[in-house]
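From the pipeline queue, job 12 of 40. The input is one protein chain; the requested action is below.

Action: predict structure.
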Amino acid sequence: MSVPPIEQLNGAEATVFIEAVNTLFETAPPLADRLLQARPYKSYTQLIDLAESVCLGTDLTEQDKLDIINAHPRIGENKTNLSAMSLKEQGYNTRQGSESEQDRQVNATLAELNKEYENTYGFKFVIFVAGRPRSEIIPLIRERIASNNKEQEMKTGMTDMMLIARDRLKKATGEAQS
């Protein structure tokens, strides 16, 4: 994964800009459009800071928020539906035929919990996995379902999306953020 220099991103065509930003975010149009319109950026950190401000602010409609959070893949999603970054972040072994019975069981449990979460809140469960095994996410999603606080869950999901973007930036640049 790599991102172009910020100066190049600032001058890129809209499609190129959005493709590059998709490296950091699973970007939905409401976020991508706002980020595109706000160019130029001094740094990727500034871009992510703006994305966070937009996602956690009050200017988005409820539908915009749903579009943004639902652009993110489900934890434990079928590998064929995940980006290369999501595969790595969720701890999948990318070799063909390497899924163990334990992996299948964990993914089946996550699929059930994702469905329960989405039925409870109306949007996808998003969490910054940070290299944890998917099995460690199971009690966390259960806790978040039990909290039954839609507004807090939306905020938590958006915050975790920004943590993911910051982690992806760090990996893409090989540097800590400034």
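Job complete. The domain at 6-173 is CATH 1.10.3330.10 (UraD-like).
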